[in-house]
Amino acid sequence: MLDVYFKECLFFTANRLSRVITKMAEDAFKVSGLSPTSAFLLMALYEKDGISQKELGQVLHLQPSTVTRVIEKLAASGLLYNRSEGRLSLIYATDKGKALEASIHECWNNLRSRYNAILGEEGDQLSLQLYQVSDQLEKIE
Q1: Is the CB of residue 56 less than 8 Å from the CB of residue 74?
Q2: Residue in 103, 54, 45 with CA at minimum distance from that of residue 74
Q3: How far apart are CA 9 and CA 5, in angstroms?
Q4: 85: which strand partners?
Q5: Closest to 32 measured CA to CA, from 94, 98, 106
Q6: Confidence check: pLDDT of 83 > 80
Q7: In sequence order, what are the beta bridge partners of 92?
Q8: Residues 74 and 38 sit within 8 Å (Cβ to Cβ)
Q9: How many distinct structural domains can be found in the chain?
């Protein structure tokens, strides 16, 4: 009966999936020298250099304190910098950070290839479904 509780519990199953995919992502991004979260933050900068810290949090679905911590770590590594414009803090990639773009995209593609090799085309479909479900659940909170 206990396995039924676990299999039918979205909380338990989502956390299990999170642990498995986090390990896969950490392995995939290890060659870049970055955590997956740091790499995704830089990917956001590649799309919109000079993005606000608040917008980064929204794009990455992270709490402000987490965004601050990641930014501080990447700034200390010389991969990004922030510039204040009034009350707004804008984040920019440095040349050193921009130089990692190809490597980060390769890591991202390797991660997707790895889980798609296991799941087939369902991997990308599952990702889209989970994103939509997350949006639905966030709206009721």
Answers
A1: no
A2: 45
A3: 6
A4: 88
A5: 106
A6: yes
A7: 81
A8: yes
A9: 1
Partner residues linked to 84 by β-bridges: 89
Contact 25, 111 (CB under 8 A): yes
* 9: alpha, beta or left? (left if phi > 0; alpha if psi -120 to 50): beta
pLDDT tens profile 2-40: 778 888 899 999 999 999 999 999 999 999 999 999 999
Q: Domain containing 97 — which CATH number?
A: 1.10.10.10
Tokens of 90: 């804008």
Q: Which domain holds residue 62?
A: 2-140
**SS3 track for the chain:** CHHHHHHCCHHHHHHHHHHHHHHHHHHHHHHHCCCHHHHHHHHHHHHCCCEEHHHHHHHHCCCHHHHHHHHHHHHHCCCEEEEEECCEEEEEECHHHHCCHHHHHHHHHHHHHHHHHHHCCHHHHHHHHHHHHHHHHHHHC
What tokens does 8 get? 């039918």
Q: How many CB atoms lie within 10 A of CB 91?
A: 24
pTM score, whole prediction: 0.89
